[in-house]
Amino acid sequence: MSYYPASIQNLIKHISKLPGIGEKTAERLALHILRGTRQDAEQLAGSILSVKEKVRLCQRCYALSDDDLCTLCGDPARDPSMLCVVEQPADMVAVEKSGAFRGLYHILSGVLSPMNGIGPENIRLRELIARIEADRISEIVLATSTSVEGEATASYIAQILAKYPVKVTRIASGVPMGGDLKYVDQVTLKRAMETRHAL
Predict the structure, then answer these.
(1) S-S: 62 plus which of 102, 107, 194, 196, CB 3.0-4.6 Å?
(2) Is the dihedral angle over the CA atoms 155, 157, 161, 166 positive or is it negative?
(3) Where in the chain is the domain with CATH 3.40.1360.10?
């Protein structure tokens, strides 16, 4: 038997579907929303709907964006000759927060994982090569995770890019083996970016 009315139970159920949110945390959040003003609830609901309606992928780097190009791709102060290759948008955000990279990005939207049926055609490698052929890129920084899949993806990309006149580097010390970039602290990630090395 539940101690809450059906409407609150429903809210708790939906909040608990979010990653990392258990039933007790969902209950606290639901009660917090209930105690807030109607305007607060409407703004929260409106921001959730807005994200679903407006957010899309940047046409150039595949970051999350409200427009055709994300703010980084549209920034003339960025160095277009350097391209940092990451797995997911959250990884790009992690590198940006470190403040160590002033170039542009390319988001693969995954890593190679033959065991899970993810091959080169399932991540954005064709688009990466098209950018290298079309733009004046002098260096590719491979910032995939140090998991087995991330390392394999970096090695595969390095092999493919060997025939192009572009320097290929890999982020270096500071990122632990098996680590996920979005969980690495900013100082460690900055050091890893600054001490990257050629493959």
Answers:
(1) 107
(2) negative
(3) 70-198
